[in-house]
Design a protein that fits this description.
Layout lengths: L20 H8 L11 E3 L6 H4 L3 E3 L1
Parallel strand pairs: 1-2
Length: about 60
Amino acid sequence: MTDETRQIGFIPMSKNGRRHDKRLLDKVDIIRHIPPEVTIWADTGFQGIDKQHPNGFVE
């Protein structure tokens, strides 16, 4: 997770094997700590983030 200047703000622990990005994100429960005025841009590995955050977009 980075900000608009590409400064790293959060790095989750890595996991072995096949894991879905969104499921790992949900496990650390970080979305609820991101203010609604902050825009979240995510790739298709994070399908559903737009339903969890009012300013979340998947491309």
